[in-house]
Design a protein that fits this description.
This protein is mostly helical. Mean pLDDT is 92; it is low at 1-22. The protein has 27 helices and no strands. The protein has helices at residues 2-15, 28-37, 42-55, 61-77, 80-86, 89-98, 105-124, 128-148, 155-167, 173-181, 187-200, 210-224, 230-238, 246-258, 262-270, 283-294, 300-310, 317-330, 334-346, 353-363, 369-379, 383-390, 401-417, 421-435, 442-456, 460-472, 479-494.
Length: 495
C-alpha cells in the first residue's frame, strides 16, 4: 500500500514540479501519518509526524497533519476541555504555512483546510460567529486556489463541503452570521463536486485523499442533503476502505442506523477494529446502544451505560439517559423511567439537537409503550413489526392530543417507507389536522414527508402546498431543520 502511495506522490510531482522545491512535501512519512489519521490511529500518526519533524522540520504539510489530529481528537472525544486546550494551535499553524512557498497548490489549500476544520469544530460548540469567519476565509482561499491551479482536484473537496452545507443551512445563528458576509452555497453543486471526486480519485495520483472525500461526502449525503441514496452511496464508496479503519466502522454504522439498516449496523459495530492503537471513541458505544434498542433488545442498556462511564464529551448525555429511561419503561419500571428522565432534564449540555429533544421529552409525560415500540422499530427499519404494534389501534384509543397526533404520525412514516402512499398521505393529513398547533414536531414533519411523497408522484402543486405547510408551522421541535428541508424541496421543484 505504501509503495502505491509513494508512486502516487511521485506521479503528482509530474503534474506539479514546483512541489519538488517547496516545503509542501507529502512524502512517505506524511502519507503514513495521513493514512493513520483516517483510520483513527492517532498515536501512530503522531509518531510518523515526529519522525518527519526530525528529518524535514520545515515541511509545511506537518502543521496541516497536526491540525487533522486535533480535529479528530475533538470529534471523537466531543470534549469541551480538549477544544479549549487545542484551539490555540490554529493561528501558529497558519503562521507557519503562510511563510512558505506561494507557488505550491498546497499553500492556499492547507490554510483553507485548517480554517474549515476549525469552522466545523467551532460550530459543534455553538461558536457560530467564529465558524462563519473561518468558512468565509476557507471559501476565499479555495476560490483563489482554484483560479491559480484549476487542475488541482483537492480544491473541490473543501468547495464541495462549503457549497453543500451553506446551500442547505437551517435558519439560525450560523446562517445569520454568514449572510452578513454575503456567502451562499448550492447543495446540488456541492453534491456534484463530491460525486465526481469520489468517482475519480481512486484511479488518480490523489488516491490517498479518497477516504477524506468519502468522510465528508457521507456527512453531506446523510445529515445535510438527507438523501435517499445516502446508504447505497456510502456502502459503495466505503467498500474499498480497509477494514482496519475505525472511521470506516463509524461511517458505515452511523449511516446504517440513520437509514433504517439496523441489522447491518449491529454487525458492523460487533466487528469494529479494537485495541490501544485506536483513538477512544465512546460515541460508538452510544450508537451500539441505539442499534440494539431499535430491535427492542433491552441489553442495549449495557452500551448506554458504558458510553456514560467513558464519555468525557458534552453531547448525547441527556439522550443516552432518555434511552435508558425507555428501557426502564419497556421493562414496566416507571420509577426507573422517572429517575432517568430527571437525569435527561438536568445532566449534560444542550449543544446538540438530540439532547434538546431528550430534555423536551423528559419534561413531558412518559411515552406510551406501544407508540414507543413502534417508534423504535420504525427507526430500525423493522417496518412490518412496527405496523403490527399499531395494527389494532385507532386514534380514539388515545386520550391526549399529543398521543393522537403521534399515533397518526407513526402510521404515516411506516406506511410511507412501505411504499403505501395513499395510507401514508391519509395518516400525514390526520397528523397535521390534529397537531398543527402543538409544540411537537409531528405535524410539521408530516407535512414535509407529505411533500416528498407528492414530489415522488410528480404532483408538483400538492408537493409545493405540503412543503409550504411545513414552513408555515412555527415554534415546534426541530423547526429549523424541517424548514430548511422544506425549502430545499421547493427549490428542487422550481428547477
Amino acid at each position: 500500500m505504501i509503495k502505491s502511495l509513494r508512486f502516487a506522490f511521485l506521479a503528482s510531482l509530474l503534474i506539479f514540479p514546483s512541489i519538488l522545491f517547496a516545503n509542501f512535501d507529502y512524502n512517505a512519512n506524511c502519507l503514513k501519518a495521513y493514512k493513520s489519521i483516517f483510520e483513527l490511529k492517532l498515536g501512530n500518526a503522531r509518531a510518523y509526524i515526529a519522525t518527519e519533524k526530525k528529518q524535514r522540520p520545515n515541511n509545511s504539510i506537518i502543521p496541516l497533519l497536526e491540525n487533522y489530529i486535533d480535529y479528530f481528537t475533538i470529534i471523537t472525544s466531543e470534549s469541551k476541555a480538549d477544544f479549549d486546550r487545542l484551539k490555540g494551535n490554529k493561528s501558529t499553524r497558519l503562521d507557519q504555512i503562510s511563510d512558505d512557498d506561494k507557488s505550491s497548490p498546497y499553500y492556499l489549500y492547507a490554510q483553507a483546510e485548517i480554517n474549515l476544520q476549525w469552522a466545523l469544530i467551532h460550530g459543534r460548540f455553538g461558536e457560530f460567529f467564529n465558524a462563519a469567519m473561518e468558512i468565509k476565509r476557507a471559501n476565499s482561499l479555495l476560490q483563489e486556489n482554484s483560479k491559480k491551479f484549476p487542475n488541482f482536484p483537492l480544491n473541490a473537496k473543501g468547495l464541495g463541503l462549503v457549497n453543500a452545507v451553506l446551500g442547505n443551512l437551517p435558519d439560525g445563528a450560523l446562517k445569520s452570521a454568514l449572510a452578513t458576509f454575503g456567502i451562499k452555497g448550492n447543495l446540488q453543486n456541492g453534491l456534484n463536486m463530491f460525486d465526481k471526486l469520489a468517482e475519480s480519485l481512486s484511479s488518480s495520483s490523489y488516491e490517498p485523499f479518497y477516504e477524506e472525500v468519502v468522510f465528508y461526502y457521507t456527512y453531506v449525503l446523510t445529515d445535510v442533503a438527507h438523501s435517499p441514496s445516502a446508504y447505497a452511496k456510502m456502502m459503495k464508496y466505503t467498500e474499498r476502505i480497509a477494514d482496519t479503519s475505525l472511521l470506516k466502522s463509524y461511517l458505515q454504522s452511523y449511516v446504517s442506523i440513520k437509514t433504517g439498516h439496523n441489522e447491518e449496523a449491529i454487525q458492523i459495530l460487533a466487528k469494529k477494529p479494537e485495541g490501544g492503537v485506536y483513538q477512544p471513541f465512546p460515541y460508538l458505544d452510544y450508537l451500539e446502544g441505539v442499534a440494539h434498542l431499535n430491535k427492542l433488545d433491552l441489553n442495549a442498556a449495557t452500551y448506554f451505560n458504558r458510553f456514560l462511564q467513558t464519555n468525557k464529551g458534552v453531547n448525547y448525555i441527556r439522550d443516552a439517559n432518555i434511552h435508558l429511561g425507555w428501557i426502564a419503561l419497556l421493562k414496566g419500571d416507571k420509577t426507573g423511567y422517572t429517575a432517568y428522565a430527571n437525569k435527561a432534564l438536568n445532566s449534560g449540555y444542550l449543544y446538540h439537537d438530540k439532547d434538546k429533544q431528550a430534555k423536551n421529552e423528559a419534561a413531558g409525560t412518559p411515552p406510551l409503550v406501544d407508540l414507543l415500540k413502534a417508534r423504535l422499530l420504525y427507526d430500525g427499519g423493522y417496518l412490518n413489526k412496527a405496523l403490527q404494534v399499531l395494527d389494532d389501534k385507532k386514534t380514539t384509543d388515545y386520550a391526549s392530543d399529543r398521543d393522537k397526533t403521534e399515533f397518526n404520525y407513526r402510521l404515516g412514516r411506516i406506511n410511507d417507507d412501505l411504499g403505501r402512499d395513499d395510507q401514508a398521505l391519509t395518516a400525514y393529513q390526520a397528523t397535521i389536522n390534529q397537531g398543527k398547533n402543538l409544540k411537537y414536531y409531528f405535524a410539521a414533519n408530516a407535512a414535509l414527508q407529505m411533500g416528498k411523497v407528492y414530489e415522488k408522484k410528480k404532483n408538483v402543486s400538492k408537493a409545493k402546498e405540503a412543503f409550504n405547510t411545513a414552513i408555515s408551522m412555527k415554534n415546534h421541535e426541530f423547526e429549523n431543520s424541517i424548514e430548511s428541508q422544506a425549502k430545499a424541496g421547493l427549490k428542487r421543484l422550481s428547477n
